Amino acid sequence: MQYRPNSVQLENKKMTDEQQLLVPIDQYLKAGIHIGTKFKTKYMEQFIYKSRPDGLFVLNLQKIDERIGIAAKFLAQYEPEDILVVCRRENGWKPVKMFGKLTGVKVFAGRYPPGILTNPNLDNFMEVKVILVVDAWPDRNAINDALRVGIPVVALCDTNNQANNIDLVIPCNNKGKKSLGLLFYILTTEYMREKGMLPRNKELDVGVEDFVEL
């Protein structure tokens, strides 16, 4: 006889799953962090939960949550001044700047000109040990620079992103304002907790809305 869990058991499982998430599942859903594009790459298939009737691919929320946690722990191995976040996409400028303001991490919001990490003669030359990019395609100049100097790359990747030359992928909707705002709010919180900059039982002094581009 096949075992079928009853509604109470299913609800309890849902509550248990939510308790393990970094934020309540409803918060993820409202931000649309799981809503992908109508295209998918071979690498991103492992993070896709399903396709909707309108053709959009939907990312697995638990895998998104898991990778954000992994990324926070990975980045916490580095001091803030050794991390660079790059974002050409305008919807990500406010969230990455807030991330930088609260953590001390270096941020480059806008078009990244090649050479910042490789050419000491440039006025804006900087030395870092890891980079985080918001979208591997528009931020490819930064990824290429990172490859030349041999530092790891963490990247937010939507369903249509290639994962070439990326060391750690965070699957998510990397285009929406609310999605990027929530992701960097969580990443800021978890990074600061891992570094001992924020007590485990405390929340940030700012809210998710402070990370969302108007």
Secondary structure layout:
Blueprint (H helix, E strand, L loop, with lengths): L6 H14 L4 H7 L16 E4 L5 E3 L1 H15 L7 E5 L5 H11 L2 E4 L20 E4 L6 H10 L3 E5 L10 E4 L5 H18 L20
Describe the overall structure:
- The protein has helices at 7-20, 25-31, 61-75, 93-103, 140-149, 177-194; strands at residues 48-51, 57-59, 83-87, 106-109, 130-133, 153-157, 168-171.
- It has 214 residues and is α/β, with parallel strands linked by helices.
- The strands form 2 sheets. It has a 5-stranded parallel beta sheet.
- Helix content is 35%, strand content 14%.
- It has a single domain, classed as 3-Layer(aba) Sandwich (Rossmann fold), CATH 3.40.50.
What attributes does this structure have?
5-stranded parallel sheet, 7 strands, 6 helices, alpha/beta, Rossmann fold, 214 residues, disordered N terminus
Number of domains: 1
Total beta strands: 7
Task: Report the sheet-strand fraction.
Answer: 5-15%
Give start-end ranges of low-pLDDT stretches. Answer: 1-16
Helix fraction by DSSP (H/I, runs of at least 4)? 25-40%
Backbone shape: globular
Distance N to C terminus: 55 Å
CATH class category name = Alpha Beta
Could you provide a short overview of the structure?
The protein has 214 residues and is α/β, with parallel strands linked by helices. 35% of the residues lie in helices and 14% in strands. The protein has a five-stranded parallel β-sheet. A two-stranded antiparallel ribbon has the order 1-2.
